[in-house]
Amino acid sequence: MRRIYLDHAATTPTHPDVVKAMLPFFTDAFGNPSSVYSYGQEAKGAVEEARSKTAELIGARSEEIIFTSGGTEADNFALKGIAYANEHKGNHIITTSIEHHAVMEVCQFLERRGFTITYLPVDEYGLVDPNDVRKAITAKTILISIIHANNEVGTVEPVSEIGEIAKEAEVYFHTDAVQSVGHIPVNVDKLKVDLLSMSAHKLYGPKGAGGLYVRKGTKLVSLMQGGEQEKMRRAGTENVPAIVGLGKAVELAGQEMDKEAERLAGLRDKLTEGLMDKIDHIHLNGHPTRRLPNNVNVSVDFVEGESMLLNLDLEGICASTGSACSSASLEPSHVLLALGLSPEQAHGSLRFTLGRENSEEDMERVLEVLPAIVTKLRAMSPLLKTQK
Amino acid sequence: MSDVWSLYSEKVMDHFKNPRNVGEIENPDGVGHVGNPVCGDIMELYIKVNDGIIVDAKFKTFGCGAAIATSSIVTELVKGKNIKEALKISNKAVTEALDGLPPLKMHCSVLAEEALRSAIEDYLARQKLKK
Fold this sequence. Notes:
Order of helices and strands of chain A: EHHEHEHEHEHEHEEHHEEHEHHEHH
Largest sheet of chain A: 7 strands, mixed
Strand content of chain B: 15-25%
Mean pLDDT of chain A: 96
Shape of chain A: globular
Shape of chain B: globular
CATH topology of chain B: Sufe protein. Chain: A
CATH architecture of the largest domain in chain A: 3-Layer(aba) Sandwich
Largest interface: A-B, 27 and 31 residues
Structural class of chain B: alpha+beta
Number of strands of chain B: 3
Largest sheet of chain B: 3 strands, antiparallel
Oligomer: heterodimer
Order of helices and strands of chain B: HEEEHHHH
């Protein structure tokens, strides 16, 4: 059976050109970038080339990029790094109620250690009101962290407006741009951010590499000690092949992004409209227009997400849900609840995130298969009866 | 990259794909209603009892694959049993009948046991009223 992968927000297949660029660094060019001899210096050169490509894509300077193991480490580094470097100035951090766990749980960690966190609400589309940010700032605020594009519903936040406010208040501003870098234009000066997290495997790069942009002059405490790598800010031998992969992935993204975003937005709208047309009692989650070009997130009333996913999987279609039946907590997605969805609707959510290998045919296949799945599951749903 | 790494056993997938005894029973002798929307599983179990024997059982479930499979298997396990035997059907028996469940899904088997118990309790309460 042909498999249709529609979960690119979870991870993407590594681009063949990226794999090709990485391979020599496992074998022929295996050196440690810290070594003085040629093997080492070759590897160092490759890392620096990747750094300059990464910087270029987001309008930064090479020396402002710190390579990490991925988006989660970048988020941890930004939040803990700023918090512990600025403890003497204050202990207040502003964030939102729809952050990725890599920001949210770091905030909760800091909260248990004496920091005060403000979790700003969002509207029904998942948008943060910049005025709420302004009002939340106190004399003790040291950091604002707002996700650029939400990983579940795809809503793109007014980051540059918030950046302006942060700048005026002289508060550090971090954005988690893991879902947006390489997919929509991201420029650190336009967004007015001091720190920005990114991840390679969300843009056809390998798993295990990511980066944190740190604006020149921004001091932060290192999470890793034990070596002089990354200008003493992130100890540990560089993951050279993965970093080279990240460099190649951002290079390709820079070339293909605009055209690809337009193509994906067309597929996204086709899928969204088709679902609305073919299934009743279905709702789009997230903003109708201010959203990632590849994200479709819907709630299907009266049915649970995982049971839809399993049925889709039987048809070869891979998607995702905000239902928590597959997690330990059993509570549905905090993002969907923050948008005001009922727990039932959050459990009935489906996320399709499209990517470069998807075609119009794939959208048609989903539209052919999903309505029958919903009908089958609704026939066994005790919720439908109570609605009649 | 094969079935070895699938989330559920073949038995679970069989009951998920072809759930047995879906629906409601008209004029049931007992109805169990358990679960809540916050945790994402709601089960309704209907039983028909003749001379102390459960002759029919049906279910309606809002929930994940495991919740649907445990509901389905419990209706099979309970049919033909007397009330005393039916009360002995534990979540362990449900899990075993499905060749196991992933650890995070064990609560679904508990829910199936509770749905059955709740339906039987409803039946017993109705019997008391009749007397």
